Amino acid sequence: MLKFVRVRHYSLAELICEGLELHNFVKRQPEVILKSPHYAIYEGEKLAGWIGCARRRGAVFEVRHLTVRPELRGKGVGLAAVEFMMRLLRQHGAVCCYAHIRRDNIASQSLFQKCGFTLMREGLVRKYLKLLREGP
User: Fold this and answer.
1) pLDDT digit of tens for each residue in the chain (136 aa)?
2) Burial class (CB in 10 A: 0-12, 13-18, 19+), 134
3) CA–CA separation, 15 vs 58, rounded Å?
4) Which residues fall within 8 angstroms of residue 117, CB to CB, at 6 or more apart?
5) DSSP type of residue 52
6) Cβ density class 49-86: b for 16+ within 10 Å, e for less
7) 109 phi and psi, to 5 degrees?
8) Separation CA 81–CA 21 (nearest Å)
């Protein structure tokens, strides 16, 4: 069973930053992780991955930093993380959300499409969008 825990401690944010650099080739500072909602994903006592989001404007959010530890990929952790984040964003009034995914990250593209996201922009980094509810 997976458990999602809000990242509030600097040491966990540091661990996530190390993982982002190792697995996602993205360099971030722990302050960035602590500034916007990020959630550690635990399978039992083991850190399975993490996911975050950031408000972009109004009721538009970006899903950020989804990472699943390599040994746990393909076991539904990413799907559960995206579904968790969609529920959370809906509860906070989000109208839509998007994710930027590198063109070579086929697994993430497939995951987001499976979760109902639509490709909105091609390129080295592709933009996927999902409407969560009708706007005003």
Assistant:
1) 999 999 999 999 999 999 999 998 899 999 999 999 999 999 999 999 999 999 999 999 999 999 999 999 999 999 999 999 999 999 999 999 999 999 999 999 999 999 999 999 999 999 999 999 865 5
2) exposed
3) 30
4) 98, 99, 128, 129, 130
5) E
6) bbbbbbeeeebbbbbbbbbbbeebbeeebbebbbeebb
7) -60, -45
8) 20
Residue type, 7: V
Q: Are 10 and 34 in contact (CB under 8 A)?
A: yes
Residue 11: CA atoms inside 13 Å, Cβ hemisphere, count? 0
| Cβ 7 vs Cβ 67: under 8 Å | no
Which domains does the chain possess? 2-131 (3.40.630.30)
Assess contact for 57 and 93: CB atoms under 8 A: no
Residue 117, both tokens: 């996201």
Instruction: List the structure tokens of 82.
Output: 């995206």
